[in-house]
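User: My collaborator sent over this chain with a note saying "see what the structure looks like." That's all I know about it. Can you take a look?
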Amino acid sequence: MIVFDYLMDIRKKKGAGYLPLIDPEKASDESFEAILDELRTADIDGILVGGSTLKSVDLDGVIKRIKSATEKPVIIFPGGHYQVSQEADAIFFLSLLSGRNPQFLIEEQVKAALSIKECSLETIPVAYLLIESGNRTSVECVSRTKSLPRDNIDQIVSHALAGKYFGMKMCYMDGGSGAKQSVPEEVIKTVKEETSLPLIIGGGIRDSKEAAKKVKAGADFIVTGSIIEKTPYLLKEFTQSIHNE
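Assistant: Without extra context I'll predict from the sequence alone. Here is the result:
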């Protein structure tokens, strides 16, 4: 299965897809087992695995445990070059275009390239944009970059277009883990109109109604992380809302 084609098929058939995010560093928590239980029955469309901190974890083992609970594709959402696994189905090949730190624009990608090739891992080129969310998030701290101002839509559109012209297949706009505010609907709507790129939206989405608003504005895929760690039973509720069931 080509994961990108699968995602585009989900987008076409369901209108939007749901990709819950699992932080591998928290795989030993009780909440992880609860999440696995919910994954067995929730109609999610795939799982993202990754985190922004630099701690080394048994990524292979975490992905194997996830795959024991679901047949949906597991996609790595890498926080660094070390987050590569042959157990995954694909990897978002991210470039943090919203920042100007060369480490996350190109250096981490170069370090990961040979490992990705050795794993024969499908790569999905993604323009990654951090959007101001009302507080400084962990990804801003780790990447040592600033988010794009949430009220400067032209600047956000310009960054998304740059990603498109680089040949990136998707655009991921993220408020960051634990964001106080999610990506504004007006930003989603305008970026979608101006770029036509498939949009992934994450960060600060705390309930299913808010997720539905993002989809209505033009989001193609919704990502939630922190809220699912705290309340795994919401997986089904988010799924139904995003799929408009």
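A starting point for your reply to your collaborator: Residues 50 and 77 are 5 Å apart (CA to CA).
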